[in-house]
Amino acid sequence: MVFDKDFMAISREKEGIMTNRIIRIIVVLSATWMICITPLLADVNFSAEIKTLPGWVVSKMKRYSWRKECPVPLDQLSYLYLKHWDYKGKIQFGRLVVHQEVALDIVEIFEFLFELKFPIAKMKLIDDYQGSDAESMADNNTSAFNCRFVTGKEGVFSKHSYGTAIDINPLVNPYVNQETIVPLQGKHYLDRGASFQGMIKKDDFVTKAFKKRGWVWGGDWKTIKDYQHFLKKIK
């Protein structure tokens, strides 16, 4: 048998070119995969920001959730931008306004809840609901500051007016005072022995995280039950 040396040299050259191309493709695909996966990996880490109120937030609050008669000035409030898991198992960024004295508490608690993948349906500023607590609760929105009166006590400022209270998943954790249920749709979640997504129960990890830092849970109250509500007294 006669071998063509030139043909063999060309074949080896082509083989080398193909090998290099395959290696390049693998490298490109690997790099692309890393580019795609890196943000996903980064997303599973909790992050939060504590800021003074941005101008656009102040403008919205002056329209809906804050007025001069409110018991706390705007410069004592902080804006929080933090990650949370939603009801679909996806990571979202939520917004809260709280008193500056409790801002770090809230971040630490929500970091703990994030690590345990406790779901928060949504976390929008109350101003997105034109300051309507009723609409926010019906939408299962978690919120904190809102200058308003205590439910059923006209003229008495709620702890939300100070930025030292927060309502979490209010639809599945309703306010209950005898026949009064707020939000009204919360009547479907009165069985506290049931297991609904986002539900807060006595002595669960949510209540323990708050109580550890000196917060009070409305679900512990004797006559009124406010399962969504946590508050903290500050000086």
Count of DSSP helices? 5
Mean pLDDT: 88
Largest sheet: 3 strands, antiparallel
In helices, the fraction of residues equals: 25-40%
Question: Topology, pairings included?
Answer:
Blueprint: H1 5-43, E1 48-52, H2 55-63, E2 77-85, E3 91-99, H3 103-115, H4 133-138, E4 149-150, E5 153-157, E6 165-167, E7 175-177, E8 180-182, H5 205-211, E9 216-217, E10 225-226, E11 229-231
Antiparallel strand pairs: 1-2, 2-3, 4-5, 6-11, 7-8, 7-10, 9-11
Keywords:
three-stranded antiparallel beta sheet; 11 strands; single chain; 20% strand; 5 helices; globular; alpha+beta; 235 residues; 2 domains
Short overview:
The protein is an alpha+beta fold. It has helices at 5-43, 55-63, 103-115, 133-138, 205-211, and strands spanning 48-52, 77-85, 91-99, 149-150, 153-157, 165-167, 175-177, 180-182, 216-217, 225-226, 229-231. Helix 3 runs antiparallel to helix 5 (205-211).
Q: Your description of this structure?
A:
- The chain is α+β, with helices and mostly antiparallel strands.
- It is globular.
- Mean pLDDT is 88; it is low at 25-41.
- The protein has two domains: 1-43; 46-231, no CATH class.
- The chain has helices at 5-43, 55-63, 103-115, 133-138, 205-211, and strands at residues 48-52, 77-85, 91-99, 149-150, 153-157, 165-167, 175-177, 180-182, 216-217, 225-226, 229-231.
